[in-house]
Write a structure and sequence with these properties.
The protein is α+β, with helices and mostly antiparallel strands. It contains 8 helices and 7 strands, in the order H-E-E-E-E-H-H-E-E-E-H-H-H-H-H. The two termini are about 40 Å apart.
């Protein structure tokens, strides 16, 4: 594979997903555009479509769709980047382009209309069904890594809650009293919490819908694990390790994720990923120094 196409593949992998609301469809999409071509991935949660083209295809398609416009492929790619990519990022952007899509014989055609230098500009993204390996690379493996990272995060939080309970117990044994009774909490019981979560919260938590909750709340985690995967593969390729194509562990991203929780976001206009609040960065957590510590059973961690 030539370096330009390899750059497109890796660049697309580390892009976050965006939620696009077209007139007749809700889609998840991600794109990566350079001067050498573009790569696009689209899904309706039932199927996944993909297109990756170089400058030759861009030049040929531009001539077919825009006979009155003459420009080098890099100019068309730059215009596509200016119109499409802002819609897939965390910025409020009012696009001058209109989008629609058609499905023909298993393929998906995403049509875009806008203007370029005062002339009408048309572009069609011809997306074919993605291969199983591509679906695994962009969805299955990242989602598995995200699950492992979230499990690790939950274990850390459960441990922190147990330490907080020990700290409160130490204060109470030293004679401290609570000034506001409404702030009183019960000691954290992991098994009881898990049982209650399964009954009360699991149905709502598993509501995928049209994919918008995934886009709104988990894109920082998604990009963290995909970038980690690319770094691991590059490291193994540099050392000639045959495990270069294997799965990447999310362990390296966990410390970053624990201090960067996702923030709730408000709704966004059509054809744009919902805007997210910037993530806050918490300082290092200090473990309490206890003078009276009773032996406690080591927490197992939720979902273990």
């Amino acid at each position: 594979m030539n370096p330009e196409m390899e750059e497109l593949e890796q660049g697309l992998l580390t892009q976050p997903w965006a939620w696009l609301q077209l007139a007749e469809n809700s889609l998840l999409a991600k794109a990566y555009i350079t001067k050498q071509g573009y790569a696009l991935l689209v899904s309706d949660l039932q199927q996944v479509w993909h297109e990756q083209v170089d400058t030759n295809i861009v030049s040929q398609r531009a001539k077919e769709l825009n006979k009155r416009l003459t420009a080098p492929p890099a100019a068309f790619l730059s215009h596509l980047d200016n119109l499409l990519c802002p819609l897939l990022k965390d910025i409020t952007y009012s696009s001058e382009a209109t989008f629609s899509c058609d499905r023909v014989a298993g393929a998906l055609i995403l049509r875009m209309r806008s203007e370029l230098s005062g002339f009408p500009f048309h572009w069609n993204f011809h997306c074919a069904l993605a291969s199983p390996s591509l679906v695994s690379q962009h969805l299955i493996r990242p989602l598995m890594s995200m699950s492992l990272a979230l499990q690790c995060q939950v274990r850390e939080l459960a441990t922190l809650l147990h330490m907080k309970d020990l700290e409160i117990q130490d204060y109470q044994e030293s004679g401290a009293t609570l000034s506001r009774d409404r702030l009183r909490t019960e000691p954290f019981e992991e098994n009881s919490f898990l049982e209650q979560f399964m009954v009360e919260k699991l149905p709502e938590a598993c509501s995928v819908g049209d994919g918008r909750p995934f886009v709104m709340n988990l894109q920082s985690l998604y990009t963290a694990v995909t970038k980690q995967g690319v770094q691991v593969r590059q490291k193994h390729q540099g050392t000639g390790d045959p495990l270069a194509s294997g799965s990447a562990s999310p362990q390296g991203a966990n410390n970053h994720l624990l201090n960067h929780p996702e923030q709730p976001v408000s709704s966004a206009p059509s054809l744009s990923e919902p805007e997210r609040e910037p993530m806050g960065t918490s300082g290092p957590m200090r473990r309490p120094q206890l003078s009276k510590t009773k032996k406690k059973k080591q927490p197992r961690g939720l979902f273990s």
